[in-house]
Amino acid sequence: MLGQNLGHYRIIERVGAGGMGVVYRAWDERLERDVAIKVLPAGVLADDDMRARFRKEAMALSRLNHPNVATIHDFNTESSVDFLAMEYIPGVTLAAMTRPEALPVPEIIRLGRQVAEALEAAHEQGLVHRDLKPGNIMVTPKGLVKLLDFGLAKLLRPSGPADRTLSLASAESFSGTLAYMAPEQLAGRRIDQRTDIHALGIVLYEMATGRKLFPQESPSQIVEAILHTRPEAPRKLNPRIPEALERVILKCLEKEPDERYASARELLSDLKTAESGDMAGLIAGKPGRAPRPSWGRRPAFLGGGLALGLAGLIFVLNIGGVRGLLAGRTAPGGVQSLAVLPLKDLSQNPDQAWFADGITDSLITELGRVGSLRVTSSTSVGRYKKTGETLPQIAKELNVEMIVEGSVLRSGDRVRITAKLIHPSDERQLWGRTFERNVGDVLALQSEMAADITKQIGVRLSEEAQLQLAKRRTVNPLAVDAYLKGVFSGDPEHFAQAVRIDPDFALAYTKIASSYFYAGLFGDIAPREAFSKMKAAALKALEKDDTLGEAHGFLAVAWLHNDLNWAEAEKEFKRAFVLNPSLAQIHHLYAHYLMAMNRTDESMSEIKLAEQLDPFSWDQSQCFGWHCLFTKGYDDAVMMALDGVRSNPDNSWAHVILGWAYEQKSMIKEAVAEFQSAIAQWKNGSIPLAGLGHAFGVSGREKEAREVLARLLEMSKRIYVPAYDVAVVHMGLGERDQALEWLAKAYEERSGFLVYIKCDRRFDALHSDPRFESLLKRVGLPLASIREEHASGD
Predict the structure, then answer these.
(1) What's the rounded Cα separation, in Å, for the pair 442 and 471?
(2) One domain, residues 107 and 170
(3) N or C: which terminus of the chain has fewer CB atoms within 10 Å of its end residue's CB?
(4) Which of 406, 438, 442, 443 is nearest to 422 (CA)?
(5) How many CB atoms lie within 10 A of CB 426?
(6) What digits encode the pLDDT tens for the residues 226-255?
(7) Are residues 552 and 618 in the same domain?
(8) How many other CB atoms sit within 10 Å of the CB of residue 642?
(9) 19: number of CA atoms within 13 Å, CB side?
């Protein structure tokens, strides 16, 4: 066609071809400009009716005016040739820029943002691309992205039943774009804007890794992978990718549309956040850091489908009498639930992000001290730091009646905080106030704000609550800074610095207690040392301020793990809840206590309360999966752990729980794979290593089990390895005497998981051994359930 005319367009050169037609550069002789002419495949518009419909819809697409979308100028037919005239865009397609090398991270985010902006504009007009892929993304020499062929996939596909059901055979006919289809496209389900988001996730994945998401050869293999295969984590292929960007990509790639971003606006918000680096302190772990179990850390802010689904399941089944329990907590009149959204940092200084986040966390803690008020945890509200969701949407997702939002502006040692109380259903402001103080007075200011807010929502404070809120003191400003940096990052060294600066800083001692607990539980520090230091820090915090519910909570776990004093532990747990019923983390730990005591219904109720307070924390769902192992609900444990792994493939704790569950289901091959995944992610982790050794042992692979045992013993010469984990491997080998010897050592050293030993199914074979009963008695655990097992023959 070179040199010929189509209407007033003179064809100059052929620039490309694909399933949607052949593309030429042409000269518009009427308007004297270059255009792109797309000649549609012969016969695709079978008759005049179809041609008229195509023209109408093409003109509707031409009204999509956005700098990142190639504009459609005209549709016409000349000498039986159907063609579109479009904006001519010099440059290269993204397909030519990616494989075989990954792009630099700033480039990935810059290009991804532009595509997301184009999708946002189109989706607002009800337009869905349906065929987004690197070949349809043009990048100009100046780096501007232009989306091509917007909406043509729909225009060129026949209407009717064939449009609604895409069989494997018809999928093969789309082989050029099959690898970018979403599961709902292949299954013939409803297609909407989330289908484009899935395709953009694939594009981001390929830019980040330099590899195809679905490298399979045959269409049938690609279809199977799209429907059922979990993507390999991008950071495994390219460790330079920040965790924040990986989470964005994986959320786009969820198999179910409801679990992806609900809109391009949401996706764009997270891409902007990843680009600015603000996510680094909000997401557990940093690029290159080995993942660890997240108990006690700031969990990743995930989509809430799993957590909310779990909440609904427990509520509907009324596990542990949850409905009655929740009803019993509801006070007549006033507001019973509230969320504080992340306060905006008006300084716009990324280096100060820790300050606004720390203030938000502090205000949440203060409001939680109001006994009749359920206040959502900071780990769950953190996902709304930058979001396009409306206040009614946020309130519905968090299941709260009121929202507090505001801003923070710091200048030197002066801080100005503006807060507003909003009724989310109609976004009506009920109260607003600006506070200004020195940095040293900012924590006392949080108490003043909390008192004001509770007054506005009709909550009457008890005398004890009034005393608590009035007890805050001025703190050295440098100590406040160190404390808030610790709250933001989770690094315990900041809390240690805070108490060195101000030895009377009670809140900082509480955080130190928390860090020692998790270090002792997971074996980072010898537990005798860790738990005794935890107890000392908790007692020091209470010496300075005995109204701190969280400090009572960590004193409870100190009584439990350090002293094996179950009565004192429960007493401190209950005192913590009197002082602050909204401590999700402490409810979580109390659920473990109740599980170990075989008080299953109460334990499930505590899990529910923790989940209510922190609905978007995957900690809570993994906790539920762990509890399911205790009650022999292995299928439920698998489901919860799989959701955790799918949401975050680097979630080593989810891999461990999944491995334990698979082993109990005699799925040894799968269990071994999960333990190996956890070992790869958890540096010097003895827990997954012991799980692997036990799985080898029970499956008859003695040589491999003994190699794991030798590895643990060799590790113990360099770092602390819990005796409990060595006992686990001996149990796998069927060596009960050696297992009991190591359990005796675990008792002496207070191995972190010793108090949960009766819940650990790997030690079930010891339940009839008098030496095991003696150990349980020394630990302080009830023997009744074990004797009931013996009597029933279970």
Answers:
(1) 13
(2) yes
(3) C
(4) 406
(5) 8
(6) 888 889 999 999 988 888 899 999 999 999
(7) no
(8) 18
(9) 18
Coil, helix or strand at residue 542: helix
Is the link from the previous residue into 100 a cis peptide, with omega within 30 of 0?
yes
**How far is residue 656's CA from residue 202's CA, in Å, rounded to a whole number?**
28
- Please name the residue ranges forming H helices in 545-583: 549-561, 566-579
Look at residue 163 in the predicted model and tell me its pLDDT.
Answer: 32
What is the residue type of 506? Answer: A
736 pLDDT higher than 90:
yes
- Is residue 43 scored above 80 in pLDDT? no
Q: Is 131 among the residues known to form the active site?
A: yes
DSSP codes, 350-403: GGGHHHHHHHHHHHHHHHHTSTT-EE--HHHHGGGSS----HHHHHHHHT-SEE
Task: List the catalytic residue out of 28, 74, 82, 131.
Answer: 131
SS3 content of the chain, % helix, strand, coil (to 5): 55, 10, 30
Token pair of 174 as six digits = 């789309």
Question: What domain range includes position 778?
Answer: 593-792
pLDDT in tens, 142-154: 788 888 877 665 5
Confidence of residue 537 (pLDDT cuts 50, 70, 90): very high
What are the b/e assignments for 22-52, b being 16+ CB within 10 Å?
bbbbbbbeeeeeebbbbbbeeebbeeeeebe
Task: Give kind and range of the element (H or E) at residue 485.
Answer: helix 477-489
Cα–Cα distance for residue pair 586/593, rounded to 1 Å: 10
Task: Judge whether 367 lies within some domain.
Answer: yes
* C-alpha dihedral (627, 630, 632, 637), degrees to nearest 10: 30
Number of independent structural domains in the chain: 5
> Domain ends where: 446, 474, 502?
474
Cα–Cα distance measured from residue 102 to residue 92, given in angstroms and rounded to the nearest whole number: 16
Q: Is residue 315 part of a domain?
A: no
CATH classification at residue 451: 3.40.50.10070
671 and 761 part of one domain: yes
